[in-house]
Write a structure and sequence with these properties.
18 helices; 13% strand; binds iron/sulfur cluster; TIM Barrel; six-stranded mixed beta sheet; 480 residues; three-stranded parallel beta sheet; 13 strands
Length: 480
């Protein structure tokens, strides 16, 4: 099954059962029952790490079978680091007049795509800062230029926060935000946009988002943007960045919103729309703190007041499963909210990912986050509900600006998947398998004779300085 079919009927919930009820969890793993938010939070806290992993793995095997786990060959292209938002977790953004601000020339982007194509890549993931200097025509020219040169490359680009800023920058016609997004998206789609990445999801709860995503769209706008993409037949992904100021209930509420909007995308057709798209994947990863303002916030548990016997993490005090508190309520209930971070450990990451596999019964793929967690935790994640190892990493600028990330080639990815007990398979952007690498001498990992040339490389910011400098007054001028 590589699809959640139209008119998907969500499994029944059984709210009278405890989250830890084995019969319930077995039914969830089989796709025959749905967790309530309360049950989701319960299993996160009360199941042992291994039990949580076991049930998530069983759910994953129900959907994907026992044999194949996938990866994709794509390339992250961050076309500009100029951004008018000021997310406190971001070390990537620059003001337009910073010495290292950049906007890539289309020709530089074409070069990157040619390199990707040469190693068998099928997709680019193109995201940027939200750069008010770039007009709509710049994007249209960029997309049509890519499609005319590389018609075989899938363009997965522009996350919802970028779209919301496009609405602000381009002032399109329309009575509602949805209509304005649609106006812009239709034009970008016609020019060559194929699908939307789920960047900028962070944590949806308003009180969290307002503190960490300064200048970035709210959850309703984010979800509405994805819904518009779905109504245009596009596939998207959803993400969550956790392990900072949020409470655990905020993570469950985030997943619940994704699940509800996915039910809508998969439900009966609304109006006379054509085939709907939907979320194909959910990927979550822990906040990386280096070089970020949020990373300078003290860790929970390092201050005397944190250690008082009744002290509770401020994020948990104000987290709710079904709503977001007003600012006044937050300040009244947890004055220290936002002033402590609770960084995620490897096991917290694995628990969160396992929960996402069990909770998101209507999402096909769960991605392992080896980019932030490291290849071996990413490999373990395949036993905690993940079915996909994401992308061979040629370049990454945003997360690597905020801490160590990892760079792997195809042979290493295949080896990690095979060593975890599965058969690696390259997929395309719609999660269809392109090539299954059975254990033969021609498989990418079996061709390697010297692994010293294929080690996972750690990388911090890998900014192409020379290219960055080629910014673009020229690019903008040529587009206007
Ligand atoms: S995370 Fe994205 S939107 Fe936020 S400041 Fe950084 S580049 Fe801008």
């Amino acid at each position: 099954m590589n699809d959640m079919t139209r008119c998907f009927t969500p499994p029944q919930t059984h709210p009278h059962l405890a989250g830890t009820d084995r019969g319930l969890l077995e039914a969830v793993a089989a796709g025959a029952a749905r967790l309530t938010p309360e049950q989701g939070l319960t299993i996160f806290h009360e199941l042992s790490l291994h039990d949580l992993g076991r049930f998530a793995d069983a759910r994953c095997r129900t959907i994907h079978g026992d044999r194949i786990r996938t990866y994709v060959i794509d390339r992250n292209i961050n076309y500009t680091n100029v951004c008018n938002a000021r997310c406190t977790f971001c070390a990537f953004r620059r003001d337009a007049d910073d010495h290292d601000a950049y906007t890539l020339e289309p020709s530089a982007i074409h070069e990157k795509i040619a390199e990707l194509s040469a190693i068998g890549g099928t997709q680019i993931l193109m995201q940027g800062g939200m750069n008010p200097a770039l007009p709509l025509q710049w994007y249209l020219d960029l997309l049509s230029g890519i499609k005319s040169r590389f018609p075989h490359i899938h363009v997965h680009a522009f996350s919802p926060p970028e779209f919301i800023e496009f609405v602000h920058f381009f002032d399109p016609p329309g009575e509602s935000l949805e209509a304005k997004i649609r106006w812009v998206m239709v034009r970008l789609k016609e020019a060559g946009l194929d699908s939307l990445p789920g960047g900028g999801g962070e944590i949806f709860a308003h009180h969290v988002r307002r503190r960490i995503g300064l200048g970035k769209c709210d959850a309703t706008s984010w979800l509405t943007c994805m819904y518009v993409a779905h109504t245009l037949g596009m596939f998207t992904s959803a993400t969550m960045m956790f392990g900072h100021i949020e409470g655990y209930a905020d993570r469950v509420q985030h997943m619940d919103l994704v699940r509800r909007w996915q039910d809508r995308a998969l439900g009966p057709a609304e109006g006379d729309r054509g085939p709907m798209g939907h979320y194909k994947a959910f990927i979550s990863w822990p906040f990386q703190r280096e070089n970020t303002p949020l990373g300078r916030v003290p860790d929970w548990g390092t201050r005397p007041e944190d250690l008082a016997s009744a002290a509770e993490f401020p994020g948990d005090l104000v987290a709710r499963l079904d709503e977001s508190l007003s600012n006044e309520e937050v300040l009244a209930q947890a004055p220290a909210f936002g002033k402590r971070v609770r960084m995620s450990s490897a096991t917290d990451y694995l628990r969160t990912q396992a929960l996402s596999r069990l909770y998101l019964d209507n999402i096909y793929s769960i991605g392992a986050s080896w980019v932030t967690m490291g290849p071996h935790v990413g490999q373990v994640a395949l036993a905690f509900g993940a079915s996909d190892m994401g992308s061979v990493m040629m370049e990454e600028n945003v997360v690597s600006s905020a801490g160590t990330t990892y760079c792997l080639d195809e042979a290493v990815l295949c080896r990690l998947i095979r060593d975890a007990g599965f058969t690696p398979a390259q997929r395309n952007n719609t999660y269809d398998v392109v090539t299954v690498h059975t254990d033969t001498p021609v498989a990418p990992d079996r061709r390697v004779t010297d692994w010293s040339r294929h080690r996972a490389r750690k990388m911090h910011q890998q900014a192409p300085k020379a290219v960055q400098a080629s910014v673009s007054a020229k690019a903008v001028a040529s587009a206007t």
